[in-house]
Amino acid sequence: MNCLARNKTTIYYATVSGKTELTDEYGNKTGQYELTYSAPVEWAANIRWDSGAVQLDGFGLNQSGTRRIVTCDVDVPITDSTILWIGITPTVDEKTGEVSPAHNYVVSGAPERSLNQLAILVQEVNVS
Predict the structure, then answer these.
(1) How much is the pLDDT for 103?
(2) Half-sphere exposure in the Cβ direction for 44 (13 Å, CA)
(3) What pTM was estimated for this model as a whole?
C-alpha cells in the first residue's frame, strides 16, 4: 500500500529526551518522574478519525477524540510516550526553550509496525 502525498497532513511530534526523578519537600525520592521532551519535529502523515464521544461527567463535559495515524515511514521514532500537535503549529521560545501552545494529543498505545506501514493511535488531551 502506498501513502499518497495528497492524503498527508502536517503534524508535529516531540520524543522523550530525558527524565528526572521527583522528590518531596524533605528531599525523599517519590518514585515519580518528570519527562523532558525534544523540540517539536515537523512530519507529514495520513490522519483519520477513529472515534469520538462527548459524555456528561460529574464535573462537566468529557470530550474524547481518538485518531489513527498511518504512514509508510516505519523508521519515525514515535513511541508510546510521544506527544503531538495536530491542527496547531508549535513555536519554541529562543530564550527559555518553552514550547507554546501545549501539545494536544498523546500516543495512546504502542505503535503497530508492519513491514511497510506504521499505525499509531492518538488520544486528544487538554493540557493547561
Answers:
(1) 93
(2) 7
(3) 0.80
